[in-house]
Amino acid sequence: MYCIFDLHENGKDFDYYIAVENKTGATGEEFSKVTLQEGRYVRVEFMKRNHTAASLVAVYTMKFWIELNGYRQKKSPIFNLYDDRFHSNYQKHGCKDGNYLGDPVVVLYVPIQ
Q1: 2, 78, 9, 8: which is closest to 33 by C-alpha?
Q2: Is 3 left (phi over 0), alpha (psi -120 to 50) or beta?
Q3: Is 39 exposed, middle or buried (0-12, 13-18, 19+ CB in 10 A)?
Q4: 5 with 14: CB under 8 angstroms?
Q5: In this predicted structure, what is the pLDDT of residue 7?
Q6: Closest Cα partner for 93 from 28, 29, 47?
Q7: Which of 8, 69, 79, 102 could form a disulfide linkage to 93, CB 3.0–4.6 angstroms apart?
Q8: pTM recorded for the entire structure
Q9: CA 87 to CA 9: how far, in whole Å?
Q10: pLDDT (tens digit, 9 = 90+) per residue, 10-57?
Q11: CA nearest 110: which of 81, 85, 74?
């Protein structure tokens, strides 16, 4: 599962999409297609305890880490990948009061030039 954030020009607002890979080739009016661009990405694995913590990881990566390491962010959507490490953990431990329990790993991808 992917959570895709397409940032607006103001750098604060964004469009948000939840997507999965279309392995069956499903089509129709009830589906939308999102294509993530090929290229270079900063890849950050982290424990997603809650939405606030995930936002802080993304903001730090985009506003500080990229520049400090000599990169520039590319104008393309950033996204989180929720693979089996997140989903199996969620099935086993769940979420309480907005906090994910166990060790819920998520991978952030930020496009760079």
Answers
A1: 2
A2: beta
A3: exposed
A4: yes
A5: 84
A6: 47
A7: 102
A8: 0.88
A9: 33
A10: 877 888 889 998 889 888 888 888 888 899 999 999 999 999 999 999
A11: 74
- Alpha-carbon distance of 67 to 100, in angstroms, equals 30
Taken in order 82, 51, 10, 61, the sign of the CA dihedral is negative
Burial of 78 (0-12, 13-18, 19+ CB in 10 A): buried
Residue 84 CB partners (closer than 8 Å, separation 6+): none
What the block records as the tokens of 68 is 């400090």
- Map the chain to HEC letters: CEEEEEECCCCCCEEEEEECCCCCCCCCCCCCCCCCCCCEEEEEEEECCCHHHHHHHHHHHHHHHHHHCCCCECCCCEEEECCHHHHHHHHHHCEECCEECCCCEEEEEEEEC
The residue-averaged pLDDT of 51-74 equals 94
pLDDT at residue 65, rounded to an integer: 97
